[in-house]
Each structure stands twice: as C-alpha cells, then as structure tokens.
Amino acid sequence: MLKGKTILLGVTGGIAAYKAAYLTSALVKLHASVEVIMTEHATQFITPLTFEQLTGNRCMVDTFDRNFSHQVEHIALADRTDLVMIAPATANVCAKLAHGLADDMLTTTVLACRCPKLIAPAMNTNMYENPVTQDNLDILARYGWEVIAPASGRLACGAVGPGKLPEPDLLLQHILRAVALPHDLTGKKVLVTAGPTQESLDPVRYLTNHSTGKMGYAIAKMAMLRGAEVTLISGPTALEKPPFVEVVDVRSAQDMFEAVAARCEQSDLIFKAAAVADYTPAGYSDDKIKKKDSDMSIPLKRTQDILKYLGEHRREGQVICGFSMETRDMVENSRAKLAKKKVDMICANNLKVAGAGFGVDTNVLTVITAGGVEELPLMSKEKAAGRILDRAAGMLGK
C-alpha cells in the first residue's frame, strides 16, 4: 500500500528505539522507501547498520558528513519525503521541533519538510506529564503535527504510567491512514454493517449464519484510509477491530436495526454488508430447552428489513449500497432487490463460485445499479472494497 512513497523515520535516544527497527521492516514490506535519520544519542541504543540492512539505504546521523553527495542532503531528502514519523521522540527532540531549533541532521531535515508529520513521544512518565512537555506537544499539534499518544504501563526506568512507545503495528496504522490512499472521502460520514447476527432460542442456543464480517470490515478500513469518518456496526466476529473507526457491537437483528436507524440520517454513504437474519425465534425460553425423544419445530417470525427501511427513509444526497449473496439467478434476484429496496447499488456474489464464499479473503462481485451491471474479477476483499467505494463515491451528489 506504500509503493512509491518515501517515509522519513526519525529515531531519537530512548530505550524504545529498538521498536523503530520493527516499524522499518513493516514499512519495507509494504514497498515504502524508508530513509532513517538517527540522533547521536539514538546510536547508543541501536546501530545505524541495523537500519541500513533493513532499508538498503544509508542511515544518516551527522549533518556535515562529507561522504554525502554534492546536494544539500537534508533539503534534497525533505523534498522527496511523503511523510515524517519521529518514533521514539524524546522530550528534548519534541522541544527542539516545537521551537524550530535545528542543530543536527534530523531537526534540520524535518524543518525543511512540507509533508504530513507524525510524532510519537516516549519518555519517563513524569517527563511526559510535565507541563513544559505538554505545552511543546500542543505547539506541535497547532503547527499541524499529529501527536500519537504514548501507551501506559511499566517503563524501562521502573515508573508506571503513560510514556511507552506504542507498538509498531499501531504506528504503522497511523502512517497508512496519513498517506496510503488519496483522502477523497474527507468530510464524508460512512456507515458500514458487517458480520452475522445471532438470534437466541434460550440461554444456550442461537440461530446464525456463516458470515465472518470480512467484506464489511474491509469496506470500513478502506473508507477510513480514504479520509472518511467511519462507523462500523458489527455482529459477533473474530476479526480485529479496524483502527480509527467507531465500532458498535451488536448481537441480534433487532440490535442491528436499532443501531442503524439511530445513525443513518447523518451518514453520506451506507454499505449494508452484514448478513442479518431474516427470521428470529417467535419466543425465547429463559431456561435451557431440554431435548425430547420426538422431533422439535421452532416457530420463527420475520425480522425488520434494514435495507428496505434505509431505502424508504433515505435523505436527499445519500448513497445506499446493499449486498446480495445468491446460489442461483444472481443478477435477476439482485436487480429485483435493487428496485424493491429503493437503493442505489447492490453488490452481488454467488456462494457457489470459487473465492466468493464465506470466510475467505477474496471475493467475486457483480455491481448492479440502475445504469447497468459490472462484473468484477476475483480479487482481495480490500481491493473489492476500493472498487465499491469508487462507484459509491461517484454517485454522491447525483
């Protein structure tokens, strides 16, 4: 996702500097070009050679190293950088960056950068909570820096509290949100439903389906990366919650209906990817239903049709996308659903097609609108989510 991007990673003198190596490796795996600048103090915790081996680029420390090219190196690097991340950032470096001090390779280069800048302070709890440090972080935020709050826990110095550098995976997610994709959905509110619902029979048993929620979670993640404000209403899944997304956990079809109805009015784009139960038990037993020698039948009643509700209560300018999983007559059934539910788009797939079923990381979608039918090839669910978002975003305002 970072192919063609240059990430400047600044590493300063704290024990958490070792985590920067893991972050560097993760960035390289996403095809980013990573340039690392270390402060002199950082080299006491981890060597420049580590980063050179990981990135294939020279790790810079001294501003006046005569082995650099004839260009003014810090200016040339600043010009080609797409994002700056300082991790870990000591209190000293936070103070220097907040006040424009530039006395080494890192601070002079960053002062010349016009790209997005992220900083992850990591230090002793008392140093972090000191009003001077907090003022410096506030100054950086006012100048457009994204300040990533430290984690809390036991620090290397023995103190317990905030000051730990967040794990590399979280730092990576901040970078992806900032530069992985164009922010063409900035200012838009996106509502996504995902996963199955569970309809309880008694305290032990429930009715459900095979949905894992992967398609809906992919849409939520990709919309977030494109700058949208995303709310994900999720039935029970084993998936990790996407970062920077408001997740509303629900269980039953009625729970999901109530959560959607409370939030749909303010949403610009709605993607109803959840596999909501069409029927729920007509009654619930407070005690476990005991088995008998004879067969048992379970009376069922219809649940609220969420997509139909959305179509009937839509506000002007809203784009609504439903999903349809079929085993036969996919296009015909989905076209009928498009008209009946009064929505803008139906994303259909056939459970019998390889790569399009439950629980896999791929999908084979057919996108159906009033204007026609588009068949998408087999692709990852994240790529499919991107294509769906493209189509939906193109309908906004029409």
Describe what you observe in this structure.
The chain has 398 residues and is an alpha/beta fold. The chain contains 13 helices and 21 strands. Helices cover 33% and strands 23% of the residues. The chain has an 8-stranded mixed beta sheet, sandwiched between helices. The chain has a 5-stranded parallel beta sheet with strand order 2-1-3-4-5, sandwiched between helices.
Features:
Rossmann fold, 2 domains, 13 helices, 33% helix, 23% strand, elongated
Short description:
It is built from 13 helices and 21 strands. The protein has 398 residues and is of the alpha/beta class. It has two domains: 6-179, Rossmann fold (3-Layer(aba) Sandwich); 189-395, CoaB-like (Rossmann fold, 3-Layer(aba) Sandwich).
What percent strand? Answer: 15-25%
Number of helices: 13
CATH uppermost class of the largest domain = Alpha Beta
CATH fold-level name of the largest domain: Rossmann fold
Question: Which regions are unreliable across 5 or more consecutive residues at pLDDT < 50?
Answer: none
Task: Give average pLDDT, whole number.
Answer: 94
Task: Tell me the total number of β-strands.
Answer: 21
Fourth-level CATH superfamily of the largest domain: CoaB-like
Residues in helices, as a percent range: 25-40%
State the distance separating the first and last CA atoms. Answer: 30 Å
Structural class: alpha/beta
CATH architecture type of the largest domain: 3-Layer(aba) Sandwich
For the report, how would you describe the main beta sheet?
8 strands, mixed
Shape: elongated
| Rg value | 26 Å
| Overall tally of structural domains | 2
* Strand order within the widest beta sheet: 12-11-8-13-16-17-19-20
